[in-house]
Amino acid sequence: VAGLGNYGLRGTRHSVGMEVLDRLARQLAVAEGWHVDRRCCADVALATAHGLELVLLKPRRFMNLNGLSVASAAEIYSLGPEDIYLVHDDLDKALGKVAIKLGGSARGHNGVQSCISALQSNEMTRLRIGIGRP
């Protein structure tokens, strides 16, 4: 589960994916387990939920390069694109609205496009978090 965003700009609406992962880590009682994994240039926490092993990932790169971290982590943890969930902001959704998208285009989202390019696939599931337009 990758929370897309701008690592150096935490707390901004475009980094909502990382905020969601912080909350998920707290709910799964692994918030103290975040560690820097230099192999994929990301903060990583491992968790278990409903019998599934999860890799929580917050890339330490700017949004348009998040895919490099996601692809490296996929290789390290032997994951295919179909195993990856991207959590990211969506300008076209009202603030707080959430939607799941299975594969398809990036719809203009630079972080998702970066993941599609780095993984050479668009099969990732996306959890789109509405942030609305200014």
Automatic annotation (TrEMBL):
Keywords: Hydrolase, RNA-binding, tRNA-binding. One of its GO terms (molecular function) is tRNA binding. Pfam families: Pept_tRNA_hydro. The keyword Hydrolase applies. InterPro entries: Pept_tRNA_hydro (IPR001328), Pept_tRNA_hydro_sf (IPR036416). The keyword RNA-binding applies. PANTHER family: PEPTIDYL-TRNA HYDROLASE. This is PTH hydrolase. It comes from Urocynchramus pylzowi. The lineage of its organism: Eukaryota, Metazoa, Chordata, Craniata, Vertebrata.
